Amino acid sequence: MHRRLIALARGTGPLFLFAVGTLWASALLTILQAVLLSRVVDGAFLRGHNLSQEWPRLWLLLGVILARSAVGGLHEIGARAIAVRVKSDLRRRLFAHIQALGPLYVRGQRAGELTAAAVEGVEALDPYFSQFLPQVLVTALVPLTILLFVFPQDWPSGAVMLLTVPMIPLFMVLIGKGAEVATRRQYRMLGQLSAQLLDTLYGLTTLKLLGQSREHARTVARVSDQYRRATLSVLRFTFLSAFALELLATISTAIIAVEVGLRLLYGRLTFPAAFFVLILAPEFYIPFRMLGLRFHAGMSGVSAAERIFAILDEAPRCAPVHREARNVPIRAIVLEDVSYTYPGGSRPALQHVNLRLERGERVALVGPSGAGKARWSGSSWVS
Length: 383
Known about the structure:
Layout: H1 2-10, H2 14-45, H3 51-101, H4 103-107, H5 111-123, H6 125-153, H7 155-164, H8 167-202, H9 204-210, H10 213-265, H11 271-312, E1 332-340, E2 350-358, E3 376-377, E4 380-381
Antiparallel strand pairs: 1-2, 3-4
Helix pairs in contact: 2-3, 2-6, 2-11, 3-5, 3-6, 5-8, 5-11, 6-7, 6-11, 7-10, 8-10, 8-11, 10-11
C-alpha cells in the first residue's frame, strides 16, 4: 500500500524533487547553524573576543537562521502542493473509474461508503502526503547528515547516537501495530456511519410513515458511539506513542550530554566540538519524535487508500467501445434492434432500440434509472 502511495507522490515529478531538495538544504543549514553558534560562544566566552570581532559570524548566523526558516516554509509549500495534486488526480481517477464500472457496481454498494471513500477518504490522504511522507524523508536524510558531520568531530558521541537510535523505530513498530489496527477500525466505522446516515436521509419519509424513525435514530446513535470509541482508541495510541518517543529521545540526549561533559571536564574534548555535538544532539532525535507523532495521521491515509485502491482495482464489467478514426466525419449514428443486459443483471437495460441520429441533431434521452442515460456522450454511444 505504501509503495502505491509513494508512486503517486513520485508522479508529481519536479514537486517531489523540490521537496527532497529543500529537506537536504534544511539539514545542511542546521549543521551550519550549530557550527557558527559553537564558534561564537567559544570566541566570546573563552577567547575573549569583543563584539566587533564576532559581528561577521553573528550576521552570518542570523542569515543561516532566516534561510533555514525560508527553506522550511518552501518545503511546507511543496508538500502541500504534492498533496493537492495527488488528491486531485486520485479523485479524478476514482470518479472516472466508478463511471466505467457502471450502475450495476454502484447498485451493489452502499452509497454512503462510496461517498466516504471519494470525499473523506481522498481528503484523509492530505496528512499522509503533506506531513507523514515528508517526515519520513526528513528522518532518512537529517540524522544521516548529522552523523556524517559529528563522527569527524567526536566519534564517541556519534557512536552513542548510532547505538541509541534503533530503539526509537523499535518502539514505533511495536506501538504502530496496535495503532494501525485501531485506525483501520476507525475508518471502517466512519464508512458505516456515512452509509447509515445517507440511508436514513433516503428513507426518512418511509421511516416516518412506518413509525420507525425513533428506532432508527437509536441505531444511528449506536453507530455514532462506536465511531467515538474507535476515535478515542486511536488517540490513546497517539499519546502513548508520543510519550514513549519523547522519553527515549530525552534519555538518549541526556546520555550524550553526560559523556560529552565528562570528557570536556577531563580535557579530552575541545569546547567548540563539545558544544557543536550538544546543539546537534536534540536535532538528531527530533525527526524520529516527529515521525512518531505524524505516523498516526499517515495511518489514517493508508486506511482510506485501501478502500480507494480496492475500488480502482475493480475491473469494469462493461468495456468501453474504442473510438477509432476520430478525424473521419460522422454523418449519422444508427442503432438497429440494440439490446443490452448488464453482467449479472436480471432485466435488459436496453431492449430492441432503434434510433437514427443525424449530425448536429439534438435529442433528449429519457428512461428509467440504470438504463445507461449517463453514458451518452455528445456525438457517440459509449455504453
